[in-house]
Amino acid sequence: MLPTMTSYEAADLNADVAVLPVGSFEQHGRYLPLTTDALIATAISERIAQDHALFLLPAITLGCSHEHAEFPGTVSVKATTLYTVVNDVAGSLAESGIERLIVVNGHGGNYVLSNVVQEANTRTRRMALFPQSSDWNDARSEAELRTTHHEDMHGGEAETSILLHRFPEVVRPDFPQADHLVDDRRHLLTVGMRPYAPDGIIGLPSLATAEKGQRLLDAFSRLAKEHLGALREQ
Questions:
Q1: CA–CA distance, 64 with 109 (Å, rounded to integer)
Q2: Peptide bond into 131 cis (omega under 30)
Q3: 11 with 96: CB under 8 angstroms?
Q4: In degrees rounded to 5, what are phi and psi of residue 63?
Q5: Cβ-count burial of 51 within 10 angstroms (0-12 exposed, 13-18 middle, 19+ buried)?
Q6: pTM of the model
Q7: Which tens digits make up the pLDDT trace of 64-83?
Q8: Which fold has domain 16-232?
């Protein structure tokens, strides 16, 4: 869902922080769309923007998905491209008076976003990257998920639950039959995803429910408040 706010509504909101969802365009097995990570980043961003009166931006839907290149439909951009785009967005926001940005990352392979945020905060606090691994762990615990963040890496319980809650129309019905676990993935960046997951899934989607997806978003809203506090603190 693209934001539908008008320019005048944006002025009335007078937000001091913007939210930028960043996802990817990559395979997520037979039952989730190529836009899965962008949709998840959008769902989290929508929720925290609404709950904390932040300026919501449209998602960047292409990310660094090179480890999925063997799967049909996957499209990637270079890390340097994503680096430039996010910095350009932050610069444009600053010109219009919004000096702070939360980057909501929906794809684990977008490693360069950590460097973007790290560099942005050298002189003053300008960016936060959310959710971190610790946030995912906390959200999973609050939502009572059975899997861990490590084992439920791709298209599993968490991702499928969020989509079942926020975008149920994109989830194909065969997700309960797609469970696949592989804990040792140390060569993933060298050999890619397919040797570890022939169907593209690492996780337990059979455990997914819309209720868990709602509880995950509830948790992320609470956790985002802590990041906002750190971002605004000078």
A1: 6
A2: yes
A3: no
A4: -135, -160
A5: middle
A6: 0.97
A7: 999 999 999 999 999 999 99
A8: Rossmann fold (3.40.50)
Give the end-to-end CA distance of the chain in Å, rounded to a whole number.
34
The string of pLDDT tens digits covering residues 191-220 is 999 999 999 999 999 999 999 999 999 999
Count the helix, strand and coil residues of the chain and give each as a percent rounded to the nearest 5.
45, 15, 40
CA 73 to chain centre: 19
d(CA 125, CA 234): 7
| Distance from chain centroid for Cα 28 | 14
> Of all residues in the chain, what percent carry a pLDDT higher than 90?
98
Residues 1-31, buried b or exposed e (16+ Cβ, 10 A)? eebeeeeeebeeeebebbbbbbbbbbbbbeb
d(C-alpha 217, C-alpha 168), whole Å = 15
Token couple for 37: 């990570």
Q: What is the pLDDT of residue 233?
A: 86
Q: How far is CA 45 from CA 37, 101, 146, 164, in A?
A: 12, 12, 24, 17
Domain boundaries, the chain: 16-232
As a whole number of angstroms, the distance between CA 127 and CA 221 comes to 17
Measured in degrees and rounded to the nearest 5, phi and psi for residue 88 equal -65, -40
